[in-house]
Amino acid sequence: MPIQQICTVVSMERLDASTWWMVLEAGKMVERYGLRGGQFLHIKCGDGQLLRRPISVSITGQDEPEDLVTLIFEVRGEGTEWLSQRKIGDKLDVIGPLGNGFDVSKEGRYLLVGGGIGVPPLMEYGECLQWPHTAVLGFRTKDKAFPAIVSRFKEHCEETYLCTDDGTLGRHGFVDSQVREILVKENNFIAILACGPRPMLKSVAKVAAEFGVPCQVSMEERMACGVGACLGCAIQMKDGTMKHVCKDGPVFNAGEVDWDV
Amino acid sequence: MSEKHASHPEAEGIIASTVTQAALTQDRSIDLSVDLAGVVLKNPVVVASGTFGFGREYGQFFDLSELGGICCKGLTLHPREGNPPPRIAETPMGMLNSVGLQNPGVDAFIAEELPFLRQHDVKIIANISGNTPEEYGVMCEKLSEAGVDMIEVNISCPNVKAGGLAYGTRPDLAAEVTREAKKHARVPVMVKLSPNVTDITEIAKAAADAGADALSLINTLRGMRIDVNTRRPILKMNTGGLSGPAVLPVAVRMVWEVANAVKLPILGMGGVSKGEDAAQLMLAGASAVAVGTALFADPRAPLKVRDGLAEIAAKQGLGAVRELTGGVRPW
Questions:
Q1: Does domain A110-256 have CATH number 3.40.50.80?
Q2: Residue B240 in domain
Q3: What is the pTM (predicted TM-score) of this model?
Q4: ipTM of the assembly?
């Protein structure tokens, strides 16, 4: 069940010109309300913005006196610009936990596939699951592969593959070709967990289907209420029905999504 | 932190669903109840159709019994999946939507949603849209039988091709739909008007003459937003309905015009996010007000509007909030 909670900014770190690492004190949202990585918080971004902004949760931790929640976000418009200007001690009006997060069990190996700002919401999954996982992380360019994020995958995953669109780091190309190469070699993953831009998710979903590996994708859509009331953030399903990012997602089974619309 | 404090939500910064400070300090002698075509609302604040689903989601944030009424998500005779995404675009002090009446259909509402809503002490207003006048009649029949308190006849949805807005922009069609609804409804019928017309009073009069018991206005204003880089409209349907604080002055003006043109009670809506906004609509002639888009910024907005209204009435020395209705003093 979501609650409306006043959260305090306890850390604010700039990763580059447009990317921020923010830590919030969030009451007992982790311990009592079950907030975890891959879910999102709906944050009021000042009085100038009518709508809240959905921000993905990267890392959660139970703590005293309050639980800690890490949000890693990119400035994309006026709302996230406002959010990036918050200082330590500032209060935020937050609704959460919202959304489902990835469906994982303790047993089995997962293949984590992230692209750009879709990488951070996978961090907790690399760290908390007990089996040795493999991660494939894609970035536009070397400078976007922040060591603070990548190092945590390297530390906790058995293997971490890096790809860049421009070839300045790791493999030159998109994550789906790396995923294909991995699956050709060994196909013993219980599922692929993917988060990133829609074109990336579509191509990863295609590879997963080819190899018969279950694939969960975390999707984005323009959102208003965040709680399932307004039906704004619709995603078209293959069977012709609509599902909603805020209530049914953001994580969907890739096989159910209609990728051709 | 002691156990006692730990169990107290406000001690942890949770914005709890208790009565706000304004309500606690307000003069308890103020009567908040209003009469909307014979339906008595315990307070004038209703939530607007399409912003509140069937109550389950926002029911997590406050007790639905605190509201005067709930206008349910718009229903059609058969289930609808609605429009392709994107359906939402934020605009200066407003937002566009093109949800397109996604809903489970009137039968599923009656079977699965109405029993839940009925567990609360709040008036339930069903909102219906039809492809033909006959469909409106069938739905009125079913909903009256199922026991809703009122039916809001939507002749003004800007996001669907069939019916919808077409009925709301032509007086003869508005009258036909109203007559059909009245013929089959055994609860009061409220007709929801579109602002996307040259003269809203023409449609209001047509609905009134056809037997409407109340009017609600305004529905959203048609609008458009374009991404200048891709040169594509943000909404997949290109255009959508504008709501939010940006439309409040239009709503106030139209409620005032309609109140001067017809004698029916009015449910005023459009951009209400605080007590003062609601008071403006009531002074312009509304008997009750609906809160919609403001919910998205603050789930407790309807309660704040209610408390704000009570505070204004108290400051003005009124015995009842309904004394505001029609009280504007035009120049």
A1: yes
A2: yes
A3: 0.92
A4: 0.92
